[in-house]
């Protein structure tokens, strides 16, 4: 197909999201101009000029498509013709049940494949301002290390409060893994906020002894050092271990204060401290630990937080962190096909939208590329069903979170980056049962639920692919 038939889609950023988006656009017969600033301009994290360079781990995490949400996302991407997944499979190195790659071989192969495509024009240049109006279809996929000049332009476009440069993440827990025979639902002083009922938080109580044991664990726990390109923390979102260092009672008068709460499991007994968890998604399947941003290593977080009464068997959708990141308030700014509402010629993709992880970034790039190409082809874009991994992740980015009160959250926006996890999927209509119809419990129940969610996702994905393949031209 001739390049002249359609005007090019411009993609800014040659990371995983931008590379996948470029492949998807070109695969649908639409020309692409892919702008990548390296090696003309580099970052403190990148080491090469290759497209899709992996700057941290070489792992794409679990490849288990039946019991792990990221493994399911791998499988969906394969079925959608993903360049990133195809190249990862071809450059795989031994990693047990995970999909890990030879990072140099992987990035070199992605770069060569895109450079060889007749519809893809790779331009090594920095896009330091918002694209000019004659670029009528643009995907911005510049990632967490967006250049300062472009980040400043995006800030002016979106508003000062709509672009974050600092990622303060509290752990997020699967609601059904919390022991409600110990924890209880209540808002402080039974106050009902916007859309609330007065019983909006999960509360986990601690005695004096449990509280001080928890403080000791925080102070001695193994912590992650800042990378040299990251922004140091500030008072508005201090790690809990730093607050603990300021005095043993600091947390008890901060995020762990017990005031205004009454434990129905122990009438008349006041908890010495309380850990509160706030609903994190509209489905009510995920709750975040309020005020618990931390630099503890992930293994330490799981160990220490599972010592909190009611959280002994907690399953984490994500663990906490504090690091340099650049991401927009996507639910406020983007529509269901990742277009910027105020200027629809612009789309955003990858980590800048508020997804976490290599595969998640590439998956959102895949969707952005398909949406942009279908728009160029005058086809009606159909977002994937929310029962699929792609649809669940897209729904989180474009509106699946819960907008909490800004002051109540300590000045930190409720929308935060997220990895794919089964907590983002709509619940099953019926709980899975055993072969003889018996009710499942424990690990068996958890695995059966994950298998059912994964199987539903792949069935619904195939229906979406079939429908999208025969999509009619928009009127």
Task: Give a quick rundown of the structure.
This protein is an alpha/beta fold. It has helices at residues 16-27, 69-79, 83-90, 103-116, 148-158, 208-220, 240-245, 298-305, 330-333, 358-376, 389-400, 442-469, and strands at residues 9-12, 32-36, 59-62, 92-93, 98-101, 120-124, 138-140, 163-169, 172-174, 184-185, 201-206, 273-279, 286-289, 316-318, 321-328, 346-348.
Question: In words, what does this structure look like?
Answer:
- This protein is α/β, with parallel strands linked by helices.
- The chain has two domains: 285 residues, FAD/NAD(P)-binding domain; 149 residues, Elongation Factor Tu (Ef-tu), domain 3.
- Helices cover 31% and strands 15% of the residues.
- Helix 1 packs parallel to helix 10, helix 2 runs parallel beside helix 10 and helix 2 runs parallel beside helix 12.
- The longest helix is centred in the C-terminal third of the chain and has 28 residues.
- It starts with 8 loop residues before the first strand and ends in a 6-residue tail after the last helix.
- The C terminus is likely disordered.
How far from one another are the termini? Answer: 24 Å
Q: CATH superfamily name of the largest domain?
A: FAD/NAD(P)-binding domain
CATH class descriptor of the largest domain: Alpha Beta
CATH topology of the largest domain: FAD/NAD(P)-binding domain
Instruction: Count the beta strands.
Output: 16
What's the overall geometry? Answer: globular
Largest sheet: 6 strands, antiparallel
Count of alpha/pi helices: 12
């Amino acid at each position: 197909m001739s390049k002249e038939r359609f005007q090019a889609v411009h993609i800014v950023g040659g990371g995983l999201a931008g590379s996948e988006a470029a492949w998807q656009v070109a695969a649908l017969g639409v020309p692409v101009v892919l702008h990548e600033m390296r090696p003309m301009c580099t970052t403190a994290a990148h080491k090469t000029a290759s497209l899709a360079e992996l700057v941290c781990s070489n792992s794409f995490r679990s490849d288990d498509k039946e019991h792990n949400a990221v493994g399911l996302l791998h499988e969906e991407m394969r079925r959608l013709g993903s360049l990133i997944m195809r190249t990862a499979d071809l450059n795989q190195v031994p990693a047990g049940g995970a999909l890990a790659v030879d990072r140099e071989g992987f990035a070199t192969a992605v770069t060569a494949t895109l450079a060889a495509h007749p519809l893809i024009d790779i331009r090594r240049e920095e896009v330091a301002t918002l694209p000019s109006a004659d670029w009528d279809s643009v995907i911005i996929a510049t990632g967490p290390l967006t250049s300062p000049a472009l980040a400043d332009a995006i800030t002016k476009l979106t508003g000062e409060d709509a672009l974050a440069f600092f990622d303060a993440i509290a752990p997020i827990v699967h609601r059904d893994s919390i022991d409600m025979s110990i924890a209880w639902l209540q808002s402080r002083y039974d106050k009902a906020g916007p859309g609330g009922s007065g019983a909006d938080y999960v509360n986990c109580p601690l005695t004096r002894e449990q509280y001080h044991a928890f403080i000791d664990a925080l102070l001695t726990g193994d912590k992650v050092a800042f990378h040299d390109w990251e922004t140091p923390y500030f008072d508005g979102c201090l790690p809990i271990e730093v607050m603990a260092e300021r005095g043993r009672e600091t947390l008890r008068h901060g995020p762990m204060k017990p005031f205004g709460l009454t434990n129905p499991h122990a009438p008349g007994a006041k908890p010495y401290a309380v850990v509160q968890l706030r609903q994190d998604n509209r489905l009510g399947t995920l709750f975040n630990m309020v005020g618990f941003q931390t630099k503890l290593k992930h293994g330490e977080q799981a160990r220490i937080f599972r010592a909190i009464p009611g959280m002994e068997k907690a399953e984490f959708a994500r663990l906490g962190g504090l690091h340099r990141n650049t991401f927009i308030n996507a639910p406020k700014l983007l529509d269901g096909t990742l277009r910027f509402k105020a200027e629809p010629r612009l789309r955003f993709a990858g980590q800048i939208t508020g997804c976490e992880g290599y595969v998640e970034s590439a998956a959102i790039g895949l969707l952005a590329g398909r949406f942009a190409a279908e728009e160029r082809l005058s086809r009606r874009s159909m977002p994937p069903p929310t029962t699929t991994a792609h649809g669940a992740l897209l729904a989180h980015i474009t509106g699946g979170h819960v907008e909490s009160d800004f002051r109540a959250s300590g000045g930190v926006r409720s929308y935060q980056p997220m990895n794919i996890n089964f907590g983002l999927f709509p619940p099953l209509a019926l709980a899975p049962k055993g072969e003889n119809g018996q009710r499942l419990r424990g690990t068996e129940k958890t695995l059966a639920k994950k298998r059912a969610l994964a199987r539903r996702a792949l069935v619904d994905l195939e229906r979406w692919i079939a429908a999208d393949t025969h999509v009619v031209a928009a009127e």
